[in-house]
Write a structure and sequence with these properties.
By secondary structure, the chain is mainly alpha-helical. The protein has helices at 2-9, 13-22, 35-66, 97-114, 123-142, 146-167, 172-205, 213-217, 223-240, 249-256, 259-269, 271-284, 286-312, 317-338, 341-372, 388-402, 408-424, 426-450, 457-460, 467-485, 488-510, 527-533, 548-553, 566-571, 573-578; strands spanning 73-75, 79-82, 87-89, 92-93, 219-220, 518-519, 542-544. The strands form three sheets. A three-stranded antiparallel sheet has the order 4-1-7, with no helix packed on it. The protein has a two-stranded antiparallel sheet with strand order 2-3. A two-stranded antiparallel ribbon has the order 5-6. The longest helix is centred in the N-terminal third of the chain and has 34 residues, at 172-205.
Length: 582
């Protein structure tokens, strides 16, 4: 108990993960059924969210300063949790999970501000759902034990189910149950696969159970076993993304969810699918993921084009933004499937970009709904005349989502398309049509809401955005511009972790096939770290740095001439667009 309290009190990952959950404890004691008590809960939740953001900035800022702009991985002490089966409490934060973790924490105060007016009942329960979901998301992003990862993965499910089912629209029960059934089906398949992996490790190691990510990375499996396990993991992650044809739960969930739920769903929950595919599905099952790549590539292309075209024909503003997520996440999957360093950096950056721009669009649609209680395009027009501040933020966020140069979407999409083209060829060229379609449906959103005649009497007296709503939108827009102008600052922290993951993936893919589960020897470059990772308990956090040899292996020697860092690729965007990179 003393160790746990010390972790919660220190500048640790444990405090970052569990502080929101601990902050839920006073919520049942707030007075109910009065406007004053609801305001007190709102203020309390906002303060908790800002304190959590401060914790994140202190921890992450210190590591970035120590790494000179890179992000050395940080690890909390590890403890055995279920000793008989080798389940450990193991939290680590590296350059892959750090940007998504910071995004999740940043969105929490923004969602509280965005929900200030729209949520009118049960604020203590609503706040508890937001805080518990944050703990689940952060735990899933930082867990390096697969059993622990699954626990946090399931923790995320219940708060979002409640957000949709309690505070959603007219068809909220249908949307919540559909979301729950889709997600749970994939999760159960993944649980079976996790247990099978630990059992296979037990057989290969001579009787020692382990769910540790680093241990399971050493497990070489026969191709058939890899394929079945990959299918189970990929099903859970692709449903969460969601990829076509697993996407049908998403529009219902988005449309019926309250504004805060939609922002969290689009901003971070969908990214757990792409993160899981990058972190677990590809590294653990390289041959199976390579075998399934043509099928998944086809589904990603269908998702890009289908999501864009369906968005184009929507008559409901929130449905348009909801379907756009299918197209944007299709681009992320395209980058991951390319297994190329530049494409992977673009995919990770685009996960962040989508959370910022689509989160802002959902906030804006929700703010408009709070005023007019409708999302139908036919009920609007000419709003720029009466809501100029709203019009500015809508145009800015839409252009960022389209991929206008100097805004965040351009950097991410360019890197994905450049890296995918040199790795995959024509599928990347086909995906560029999705960029054109994105301009069509997002400009339709802007035109139908803001311009044209102001011919609806109900719109003439609409109030513009308040200072609180501006405070929720401004940080998102600042980051959209910052990433678009200097993307290298957001690419460098992830470079080392992505390079090491890609190097290990390619090395395992090129290795010989095995007929039964075996354990690979530990790399000679990292004996000390490997020995430390095998300890059941460590008393102080450690910072892991990657050997230069791993970075060198991230790009095959034969292609060294075409492996300029992603930052350099972005810096030369105008020239690169004139001719496809080879």
């Amino acid at each position: 108990m003393a160790d746990i309290l010390a972790l919660l009190a220190g500048n640790t990952l444990t405090r970052l993960v569990f502080f929101p959950a601990v902050a839920c404890l006073p919520l049942p004691f707030f007075p109910r059924a009065s406007e004053r008590s609801a305001r007190a809960v709102k203020v309390y939740t906002l303060v908790v969210a800002l304190v959590e953001l401060a914790f994140a900035l202190v921890l992450v800022g210190g590591r970035l300063a120590a790494g000179g702009g890179g992000f050395p991985a940080v690890q909390d002490p590890r403890y055995l949790w279920i000793a008989g089966y080798g389940v450990r409490y193991d939290l680590r934060l590296d350059g892959i999970s750090m940007p998504l973790s910071v995004l999740a924490i940043l969105l929490l105060p923004i969602v509280v501000l965005g929900s200030w007016r729209g949520i009118e009942r049960h604020w203590p329960a609503y706040s508890a759902a937001l805080l518990l979901m944050t703990t689940g998301v952060l735990g899933a992003l930082m867990a390096f034990d697969l059993f622990l990862f699954y626990v946090f993965w399931e923790v995320m499910l219940v708060p979002m189910y409640l957000l949709i089912g309690v505070w959603g629209g007219e068809r909220r029960i249908y949307a919540a149950i559909k979301f729950f059934l889709f997600t749970m089906a994939g999760s159960l398949l993944m649980l079976v696969a996790i247990l099978w992996l630990a059992w296979a490790y037990k057989g290969a190691s001579g009787g020692a159970w382990s769910f540790a990510y680093q241990d399971l990375l050493r497990l070489d499996l026969p191709p058939r076993a890899q394929l079945w396990l990959f299918v189970a993991f990929a099903a859970a992650f692709l449903i969460k993304v969601p990829m076509f044809p697993f996407h049908t739960w998403l529009p219902d969930a988005h449309v019926e969810a309250p504004t805060g739920g939609s922002v969290l769903l689009a901003g971070i929950l969908l990214k757990l699918g792409t993160y899981g595919y990058l972190r677990f599905a590809m590294p653990l099952f390289p041959r199976a993921s390579h075998t399934a790549m043509p099928l998944l590539l086809g589904l990603a292309l269908v998702g890009i084009l289908y999501g864009a075209m369906v968005s184009w024909v929507q008559a409901d503003a929130k449905k348009l933004v909801a379907y756009s997520s299918i197209a944007h996440l299709g681009f992320v999957m395209l980058g991951l499937l390319a297994a190329d360093m530049i494409a992977w950096q673009g995919a990770l950056l685009q996960m962040i970009n989508h959370g910022l721009s689509t989160g802002a669009l959902f906030l804006l649609v929700g703010m408009l709904y709070d005023r007019r209680h409708t999302k139908q395009f036919d009920e609007f027009g000419g709003l720029a005349k009466v809501m100029p501040v709203f019009a500015f933020f809508l145009v800015f966020s839409s252009l960022a989502s389209v991929g206008l140069p100097a805004l965040n979407g351009f950097a991410g999409e360019f890197l994905i398309l450049a890296g995918s083209f040199r790795a995959l060829g024509w599928p990347a060229a086909l995906a560029t049509f999705g960029v054109v379609l994105a301009a069509l449906y997002l400009l339709k959103l802007v035109q139908r809401l803001l311009f044209g005649p102001l011919d609806k009497d109900a719109n003439r007296g609409l109030a513009d955005l308040t200072w609180r709503e501006v405070a929720a939108l401004a940080p998102l827009c600042v980051l959209m511009l910052w990433i678009g102008v200097v993307p290298a600052q957001f690419l460098k922290p992830s470079e080392q972790a992505l390079a090491a993951t890609l190097a290990d993936y390619r090395e395992r893919l090129s290795g010989p096939e095995v007929r039964q589960a075996t354990l690979r020897a530990l790399p000679a470059a990292v004996p000390a770290r490997a020995a430390a990772a095998s300890m059941p308990e460590m008393r102080q956090a450690t910072i892991a740095t990657l050997p230069a040899a791993l970075l060198a292996r991230a790009v095959p020697p034969a292609r060294a001439g075409s492996s300029a860092p992603a930052a350099a690729a972005v810096a030369s965007m105008p020239a690169a667009r004139a001719g496809a990179p080879r």
